[in-house]
C-alpha cells in the first residue's frame, strides 16, 4: 500500500503525520514500512538521524520489499493523499484549496485535522465543514513534538497521553 501525506501548505504536520502513521503500521511485525522522504527539507531523514533505532525504514527513494510506503513529498500530486490540516483560518483556506486541486484531478484523500483544539469555536466550526467529513482528528499535544525531538513517534511512548494520541491516529 502506498500513502502520501500531502498539502499545498508547509508547516501543517505532513512529516510528523507520515512518521506517526509509519509508527502505527510498524507495530504489526508482519509489515515492513518505509517512509520515503521526498521533501527537500528532509524532516523524516532528520528524525531518523535523531533516533537510535526506528521500527520502520526512512529513505530518500522508493525501495522494493516494503508492504507500506508512506511518502512525505514536496507539494505535488501523488496517488493517495493524507491531507494534514491545521484549523486556523489561513491554514484551513489552504486545506480547502488543496482539496479543490485534488478533486479536480479525481484524486482520493483523507483529511486529518492536526493540532485540533475542540475548546475553540473556530476549530469546532471548521471540523463541521463538509470537506472535513470522515477526518481523523488529532488533538494539539506537546507529546507529538516531544517524541519527534527524541527521534520517536507516539507509538514508542507508553503513558496514558501517548495511548490517547495513538488511538486518534490509528482510529
Number of strands: 7
Q: Strands of the biggest beta sheet: in what spatial order?
A: 3-2-4-1-5-6-7
The oligomerization state is single chain
Q: Report the biggest beta sheet as strand number plus sense, adding barrel if it closes.
A: 7 strands, parallel
Task: Categorize the overall geometry.
Answer: globular
Percent of residues in helices comes to: 25-40%
Instruction: Give the number of helices.
Output: 6
* SSE-based structural type: alpha/beta
Distance between the termini: 18 Å
Instruction: Tell me what portion of residues adopts beta-strand conformation.
Output: 15-25%
> What is the chain-wise order of helices and strands?
EHEHEEEHEHEHH
- Mean pLDDT score, rounded? 89
Describe what you observe in this structure.
The structure is a single chain. With 171 residues, this protein is α/β, with parallel strands linked by helices. The chain contains 6 helices and 7 strands. The chain has helices at residues 14-26, 43-50, 89-104, 121-127, 142-149, 160-170, and strands spanning 2-5, 33-37, 57-59, 68-72, 80-85, 108-116, 136-139. Strand 6, helix 4 (121-127) and strand 7 (136-139) form a beta-alpha-beta unit. The longest helix is centred in the middle third of the chain and has 16 residues, at 89-104. The two termini are 18 Å apart.
Task: Give a nutshell description of this structure.
With 171 residues, the chain is of the alpha/beta class. It has helices at 14-26, 43-50, 89-104, 121-127, 142-149, 160-170; strands at 2-5, 33-37, 57-59, 68-72, 80-85, 108-116, 136-139.
Amino acid at each position: 500500500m502506498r500513502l502520501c501525506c500531502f498539502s499545498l501548505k508547509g508547516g501543517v504536520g505532513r512529516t510528523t503525520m507520515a512518521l506517526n502513521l509509519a509508527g502505527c503500521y510498524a507495530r504489526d511485525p508482519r509489515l515492513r514500512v518505509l517512509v520515503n522522504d521526498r521533501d527537500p527539507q528532509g524532516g523524516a531523514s532528520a528524525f531518523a538521524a535523531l533516533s537510535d533505532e526506528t521500527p520502520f525504514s526512512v529513505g530518500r527513494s522508493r525501495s522494493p520489499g516494503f508492504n507500506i510506503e508512506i511518502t512525505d513529498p514536496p507539494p505535488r500530486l501523488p496517488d493517495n493523499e493524507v491531507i494534514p490540516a491545521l484549523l486556523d483560518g489561513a491554514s484551513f483556506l489552504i486545506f480547502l484549496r488543496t482539496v479543490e486541486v485534488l478533486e479536480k484531478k479525481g484524486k482520493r484523500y483523507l483529511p486529518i485535522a492536526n493540532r485540533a483544539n475542540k475548546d475553540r469555536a473556530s476549530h469546532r466550526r471548521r471540523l463541521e465543514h463538509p470537506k472535513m467529513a470522515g477526518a481523523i482528528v488529532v488533538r494539539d499535544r506537546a507529546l507529538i513534538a516531544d517524541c519527534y525531538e527524541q527521534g520517536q513517534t507516539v507509538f514508542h511512548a507508553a503513558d496514558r497521553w501517548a495511548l490517547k494520541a495513538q488511538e486518534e491516529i490509528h482510529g
